[in-house]
């Protein structure tokens, strides 16, 4: 992410700082209130599996409302136009529905505390350890993205030194997670969800008013950039040139299937919210509840980017002195009065803190339960793991401060995050999906699928793309291709390894593979639970209907 322009310093006053201070006091208050419920390690890492669906659902979507969503997606809108909707209607909603209806029954009934722990049950210790290390590493990198983005926004908008912004944000996230565990993070994410909307909605409405409504916005941008700029699919034919650097096939397969399903169904920072739900029904509804606001949030981040492209026609060029990442701050300076400006700044900070907290809380769970407890310090008391979880949270925050500066080497935070997803989430997804739907997949195929998928994605990005062996028009297009390559390589290697290694005993697959029943579940499925799920034909028709609904907005 490039530095925000110096000229974007906001005219904040005492009222704005008061609103910001009140928010921080409330955040810490929630942490102390949640502390009373933290008595065991399960309470700390998974809220004792006691939260209602509406809370976990809002936390699920808020955990994703970080640096990517606010600055990254607005920047993408200013640069690529309406094509930004692909990251929502193609790259999020179908995968969120799939997670809720298909994968959560596996996760929740197996009583796992993390996503990598599921691989231990389905495959073996080697797959479990490798996936735990990869996820912990990725979580710290992504937490660093949010912290870095927060620091440069605060430096440019409020005039704070960058190190001050990093320390203040890191300390607050550390305090409320260490004090109240996942419950504190989740309840703060619910608060942050509404604060973020309170910041983005006025910005969107006032921005539209400034440029003459939707018709004025469309007319101006089509005149500047052509009709394709305001069309989701314009210029995406195979062989056609477009700023996104991707055609319809790589968008659907790379973003819509591999990257999307890899992120939403195996990223523990999201799945952890559903695992903290009070029962299976609430766990399944968590991503479904989150999917509804996700449909509409795209407008609150896309429209400000489009408006910025009208107000500064040459945004993103050296002539304007503004980068695409300046879209949101530009509108905040131009449109918002004091008071509302304070809410907007608070909303930005809330977004970054939510993204960082989600990754830090998932990191401390995986590191404690999947690495430390499983392979380093076994058979300790529950109180020991609770104390260690708090300590490793502090370590995770400190590590995030370090990785924040890795993000500085990338000119666009969205590109950086998509690169990380193609390296880490996609290989895990292919192992999960094959393991869940193919009983023959052997125990050793899991770890080799992870190795092959991660390696292939990295080779495609750093060698094939960066060395110019194949001409891919943009970093985003390269990420889509890397995701597809990683998925295919992982799947092929899993099948090949399975042919020469022993499968897991069928008795140990109960509840872990499609069509089997958990050993502690009743033979007759609970009505309204997963009876539909045992009907593949119904699942197929459901997928067709879902695909049609996802494409419908593009034809309007």
UniProtKB/TrEMBL annotation:
The keyword Transmembrane applies. It is found in: Membrane. It is a multi-pass membrane protein. The chain crosses the membrane at residues 20-38, 50-75, 87-108, 129-151, 163-183, 190-208, 246-266, 287-312, 340-367, 388-410, 416-438, 445-465, 477-500, 537-554. Keywords: Membrane, Transmembrane, Transmembrane helix. Its main location: membrane. Pfam families: SSF. Belongs to the sodium:solute symporter (SSF) (TC 2.A.21) family. This is Sodium:solute symporter family protein. It comes from Streptomyces mutomycini.
């Amino acid at each position: 992410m490039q530095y925000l322009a110096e000229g974007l310093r906001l005219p904040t006053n005492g009222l704005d700082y008061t609103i910001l201070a009140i928010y921080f006091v409330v955040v810490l208050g929630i942490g102390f209130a949640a502390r009373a419920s933290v008595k065991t390690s399960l309470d700390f890492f998974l809220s004792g599996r006691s939260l209602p669906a509406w809370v976990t659902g809002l936390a699920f979507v808020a955990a994703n409302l970080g640096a990517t969503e606010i600055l990254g997606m607005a920047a993408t809108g200013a640069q690529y136009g309406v094509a930004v909707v692909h990251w929502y209607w193609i790259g999020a909603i179908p995968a969120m529905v799939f997670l809720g209806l298909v994968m959560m029954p596996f996760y929740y009934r197996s009583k796992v505390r993390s996503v990598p722990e599921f691989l231990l049950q389905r495959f073996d210790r080697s797959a479990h350890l490798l996936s735990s290390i990869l996820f912990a590493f990725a979580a710290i990198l992504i937490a660093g993205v949010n912290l870095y983005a927060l620091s440069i926004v605060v430096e440019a908008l409020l005039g704070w030194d960058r190190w001050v912004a990093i320390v203040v944000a890191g300390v607050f996230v550390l305090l409320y997670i260490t004090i109240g565990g996942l419950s504190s993070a989740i309840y703060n994410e619910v608060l942050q969800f509404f604060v973020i909307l309170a910041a983005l909605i006025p910005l969107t409405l006032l921005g539209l008013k400034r440029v003459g409504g939707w018709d004025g916005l469309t007319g101006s941008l089509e005149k500047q950039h052509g009709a394709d700029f305001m069309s989701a699919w314009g210029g995406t034919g195979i062989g056609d040139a477009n700023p996104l650097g991707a055609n319809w096939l790589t968008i659907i397969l790379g973003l819509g299937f591999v990257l999307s399903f890899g992120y939403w169904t195996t990223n523990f920072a999201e799945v952890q919210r559903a695992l903290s739900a009070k029962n299976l029904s609430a766990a399944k509804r968590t991503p479904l509840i989150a999917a509804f606001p996700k449909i509409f949030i795209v407008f609150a981040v896309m429209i400000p980017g489009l408006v910025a492209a009208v107000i500064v026609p040459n945004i993103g060029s050296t002539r304007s002195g503004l980068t695409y990442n300046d879209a949101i701050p530009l509108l905040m300076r131009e449109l918002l009065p004091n008071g509302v400006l304070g809410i907007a700044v608070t909303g930005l900070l809330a977004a970054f803190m939510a993204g960082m907290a989600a990754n830090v809380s998932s990191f401390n769970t995986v590191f404690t339960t999947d690495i430390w407890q499983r392979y380093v310090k076994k058979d300790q008391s529950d109180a020991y793991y609770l104390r260690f979880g708090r300590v490793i949270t502090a370590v995770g925050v400190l590590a995030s401060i370090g990785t924040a500066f890795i993000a500085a080497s990338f000119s666009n935070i969205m590109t950086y995050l998509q690169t990380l997803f193609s390296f880490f989430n996609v290989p895990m997804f292919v192992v999960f999906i094959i393991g869940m739907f193919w009983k023959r997949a052997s125990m050793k195929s899991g770890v080799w699928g992870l190795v092959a998928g991660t390696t292939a994605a990295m080779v495609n990005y750093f060698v094939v793309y960066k060395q110019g062996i194949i001409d891919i028009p943009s970093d985003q297009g390269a990420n889509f291709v890397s995701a597809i390559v990683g998925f295919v390589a992982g799947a092929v290697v899993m099948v090949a390894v399975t042919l020469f290694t022993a499968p897991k005993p069928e008795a140990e697959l109960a509840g872990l593979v499609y069509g089997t029943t958990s050993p502690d579940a009743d033979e007759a499925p609970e009505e309204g639970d997963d009876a539909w799920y045992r009907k593949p034909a119904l699942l197929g028709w459901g997928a067709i209907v879902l695909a049609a609904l996802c494409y419908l907005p593009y034809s309007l």
